[in-house]
Amino acid sequence: MKPALILLGLIVLIALLGPFALDWRYDAIDWDAVRADPFTPGHMMGTDSVGRDLLARTLAGTRVTLGVAAAAALVSLVIGVAWGAIAGWCGGRIDEAMMRVVDALYALPFMFVVILLMVVFGRSILLVFLGIGAVEWLTMARVVRGQMLALRERPFITAAEAAGTPPAAIVIRHMLPNLAGVAIAYLLLTVPQVVMIESFLSFLGLGVQEPMTSLGILLKDGADDMDIAPHAMLLPAAVLVTLLLCLTRIGERLRDRFTQ
Amino acid sequence: MHDLIRRRLFTALPTLAVVVILSFLLMRLAPGGPFDGERPLDPKTREALMSAYGLDLPLHEQIGRYVWRLAHGDFGPSLVYRDFTVTDLIARGLPVSLTLGALALLLALLLGLSAGMAAAVRPGGRTDHGLMLVATLLTALPSFVVGPLLALLFGLWAGWLPVSGWGDGAPSYLVLPVIALALPAAGAIAKLARAGLAQVLAQDHVRMARARGLGWPRILIVHALRPALVPVASFLGPAAAGLLTGAVVIETVFALPGLGRYFVQGALNRDYPLVLGVVTLYAALIILFNLLADLAYGWLDPRVRG
Question: A258 exposed, middle or buried (CB, 10 Å; 0-12, 13-18, 19+)?
Answer without folding.
Answer: middle
